[in-house]
User: What shape does this take?
Amino acid sequence: MGSITRMPSEPQPVSILPVSECWELLAGAPIGRLVTNFEGESNIFPVNFAVQNRTVLFRTAEGTKLVASAVSREVLFEADGYSDREGWSVIVRGPARSLHTNEEIAEAEEAALLPWTNPDDKSHYVRIRPVNVTGRRFFFRDAIAR
Amino acid sequence: MGSITRMPSEPQPVSILPVSECWELLAGAPIGRLVTNFEGESNIFPVNFAVQNRTVLFRTAEGTKLVASAVSREVLFEADGYSDREGWSVIVRGPARSLHTNEEIAEAEEAALLPWTNPDDKSHYVRIRPVNVTGRRFFFRDAIAR
Assistant: This one.
């Protein structure tokens, strides 16, 4: 299983982002995707979200599949963005927790997070406290079709 | 566990998309996200992709974590898009397979799928044959920040 170190003759097509840049990119992304793994089944849920003190905060309705599969479990959260020449993706991994105490909810309200649809249906805050944050930037060789 | 059928007094904030519309939306999306579940660990990989005969086709490098965790397994694939007032998300579930025969690869080449980065590193075609396709459209109550 030998490996050969090659000196790149042109810019590398993928670069690893520093964690501070990952958080800046996340903070500017309106939409992310929550990935849960519950009872052997993966699910993915697009959510709007806010970044607060290097955590990811979102709202959802009580009693949903999302809440059942996410809360008190390790989840993934991904956001990305792209132009026609480059793209980025940031992936957060960590436990998700429902917020219950008045203090927790008051803190979350400060993020001024908008729900996607009807605010009356989105009464449940969930916060992901990352144990791992990774980000990459991709440089496209050919402009991608939009 | 009774349920009450409520007549909506305004447009419902989420609508379920017909499968034909799901495929139209997928075909117009340049980027999607592959979710794998391998040995109890979920991973998510942004990929560019093509739709071909109601399958999802993408390329990747040999020997990657993506190939190890995706091939010959059930995967999820998600694409989405949004304006400031509405969004959509389509989720495909099905087995992923590497393409090996000349015939399979010739068929895949017809999709004219561009690799994201260096084409020399993206020699491996993977095709997802969905067993399930679901799509939703979300109507935002408040314009989301971009």
User: Anything to note?
Assistant: Chain B has one domain: 14-139. Residues 1-9 of chain B have pLDDT under 50 and may be disordered. The CA atoms of residues 61 and 119 of chain B lie 9 Å apart. Chain B is about 15% helix and 45% strand.
